[in-house]
Fold this sequence. Notes:
Blueprint: H1 3-35, H2 43-66, H3 74-86, H4 100-127, H5 136-162
Amino acid sequence: xDHGAGSKRHLGIYLNDHLAGATGGVELARRLRSSNSGDxxxxxxxxxxxxxxxxxRETLTRLTERLGIRRDxxxxxxxxxxxxxxxxxxxxxxxGPSPLSPVLEMEILASxxxxxxxxxxxxxxxxxxxxxxxxxxxxxxxxxxxGQEVEELHMTAAKRAFSP
Length: 164
C-alpha cells in the first residue's frame, strides 16, 4: 500500500471517530440545553454552546464530504446509544434529576470539546489553508472558548451540587 492511500484511510478512520464523538456530543449538549432551559445562569450559555456544537458537527460532515471520505453509519449510531446508556448511571436519586447529573455531564462535554479542539489543531497542521472553506484556526479558537465556558458552567453546577 502506498503512503497516500494509507494516509487517506487513516484520515477516514480519524474523521469517522470524531464524527461519532460529535454525534454523542450533540446529543449530550441538546439534553443539557433542554434540562437547563429555564435556568437564568445556565440556560442561555448552554443553548448557544449547543448550537455551536451542532454547527461544528455539520462542519465536520462537510469536511468528510469534501475530502471524499465515506462516512461510517455504525460509529455515530453507537455514540448515540452510548450517550443514552450513560443516562442510566446511578446518580444518588431513584427518581428525578440529581444535582450531580449536570456536574458529570459538564465534565463529559468538556472532554468532548477538548477532543474537538485537538481535532481542529491536527487538521490545521495537516492541511493549513489548503481547504479554502475550512478555517481550522477559527474552529479551534471557538472550541477553546466553548471549553472555557463549559468549565465555568461546571463550576456553577458543582457549587450547586456540593454546597451545604
